[in-house]
Amino acid sequence: MKKNAGVTLIELMIVIALFSIVGMMGLTFFRQTFQSWNLSRDAADVQSDSRLALDEMSMYIRQASTVTIPSPGAVADEIVFKISKSTIDWSHSDLEISYFKTSDSIHRRMKGAVSTLVSEGVEDFEVIYSTIDARYESVHIRLLIRKGDMWNRLTRDVVLRTRRVD
Question: Do residues 113 and 6 make contact, with C-beta atoms less than 8 angstroms apart?
Fold first, then answer.
């Protein structure tokens, strides 16, 4: 009886072909998984940036003692307002804050310094002043941010405690 001590060339080629097919399937699976993960991360980043920007703007606008924006119904890409020292525990005089859009970013001007609130992907930033009734006025903020293929449009209505300044 003859012993089989090795593998033939055909057996080796079949094993290599099978490993190649399994490897390609695994590579395709991992590539699609990472693409899906990247899209999910981009969506979460866009949501987070949008919400943080609107939350901060809303918080400060609600505390404002004066708001400087266009007449009712007009659309602006900047809002300026003051928070008086008596409204919040502030160690300085009245604080003037403004939010404005430049290219694809939203910036905040506070105490003379400009800082970036949303660093990239801002497609649209609108501020609309409206009168609700004789006693209440509001600011409607629209924000559209894009990152990669992900888009997020958020709006927020902020009821003002004070009257608008023209």
Answer: no
| 125/140 Cα distance (integer angstroms) | 11
The SS3 of residue 22 is helix
Residue pLDDT, tens place only, 103-118:
888 888 888 889 888 8
Range of the domain at 117: 31-165
Task: List the 78-83 sheet strands across, edge first.
Answer: 113-118, 105-110, 95-102, 78-83, 66-68, 164-165
Residue 139 in domain: yes
Q: Is the pTM of this model over 0.85?
A: no
d(CA 103, CA 60): 23
What's at 112, amino acid-wise?
Answer: G
Domain tally, the chain? 1
Query: What SS3 class is residue 70?
Result: coil
Is 99 inside any structural domain?
Answer: yes
